[in-house]
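Issue 218. Parser rejects a valid record. Input:
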Amino acid sequence: MTRWLISVERGWDSLGLITGEKLTIPFDVQLLFATNQPVEHLADDALLRRILYKVEIPSPGRAEFAEILRQLCRQKNVHTPEGVIERVVERLYSQGGEPPRAVYAKDLLEVVIEGAAYDERDPVLDEDAFERAYHLITSQRASGGQS
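Output the parser choked on:
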């Protein structure tokens, strides 16, 4: 990261060719880093001071997650029986520990859609489809398969 930050601060970088020739090239970029780790664990204070903007994106609340899931179901043409979104949100948030991240909605629906395609039927987010998807996703996360 220090190598990139120096070039960003200077606005230029040098490129060494195999012939021994050195070229100076403009370095006008915006770097964006994303992590799910505490930022203090990634680098020392001196390096972190050089990264001016740090934005935390918190997990959504229940109402926000329900709206994310509702919109994704509409976009992806996943049928949702009456009240199922509220029951899914209740199930996710009643687990304790860390609240679900916004990406969980997309992950769940991908599993539901792929399962429906395999079974040659239209995708429906009902309690049964949710439970299958939820167990698959949480077992992957627990074993380090996805973050």
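Fixed in the parser; the record now loads. The two ends are 22 Å apart (CA to CA).
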